[in-house]
Request: fold
Amino acid sequence: MHLTDIGFTEWFDQKRQALQRPELSAARITRVDRDRYLVRNEHDEIQAEPTGKLLYAAESSQDLPCVGDWAMVQYYNDGTLAIIHEILPRRTFLRRKSPGKGVEYQMIASNIDAAFIVQACDRDFNLQRMERYLVMVADGRIEPVIVLSKSDLVDGKTLAELIAAIRRAGITARVMSLSNVTGAGMEEFRAALEPSKTYCLLGSSGVGKTTLLNHLLGREEFETQAVREKDSRGRHTTSRRQLTILDSGALLIDTPGLREIGLISAAEGISDSFADIVELAAECRFSDCTHTVEAGCAILEAVRTGALAEERHRAYQKLVKESAFHEMSYVERRKKDKQFGKMVKTALSEVRKRKPHQ
Reply:
């Protein structure tokens, strides 16, 4: 196996050479389970640890290693332990606002070519959640593909209606449907996976991501659990993020089901996912139009005439406000962190000055 087989392109090689660290080797991070890491090189998968310097220099969780990263490592103990010294720049990334009230980024994975956004055809189907995933994927410059799983639970007419609803919402991403039970759509899905390319599975718990991964592997390698009948939701079977190499040579990252898909500073991702609304906004009478009450607003006119669904307009406005609010909160918190850091350094400096010489 060569590094190119697991996604090491000329782009990453240029970044490696720019570091000018010939004593280090490139390896890809394939698993993150809390503070434990696995990396893969040309020969094997190895336990890895970040250096204290790397941890200390990290200004936020975004700077820490995540699945899919290319790391520059040094090997010890006869090649059975890798020490992570550097992380190469990320070509693409997946991140979200960390769960809860705190405003911080949570890295999910990186260097992904395409993301499969999985929603089941039963009660899991939710256009608003789908739009959030699409924004998150677009924010990280990743190609989106929508996968409607559990197609065996609906008839052909209902499946066609679900796809039509996606198109009416202005979503133009490729849509596939499949069933882990009957195997319908599996050949199309396999055909979409190219060797040496990296893909990820995104979706709520219980939509069949891990079952799909097991089908692709041809064995029950990862644990799955039944969903609850009352709400068709599942428990978090997948608790870690892991990159798996399929027999076809494609690389697939399975991720835990995400209950919250919060967005921070995702203006570019929102613009890409709501390109139809952005195009309409260019026709508004006022350049600072808020698209809420103004006369001459092209978006409001499109909603009035039915050219734009009112639900899509509401979703757009909500995501814009949420992203901007969290961005302000994040920037403010980072300012406070830096001010606190400066205060600590000043205090330590004063202590050193006053300390009597021995």
Q: What stands out?
A: Residues 166 and 172 are 8 Å apart (CA to CA).
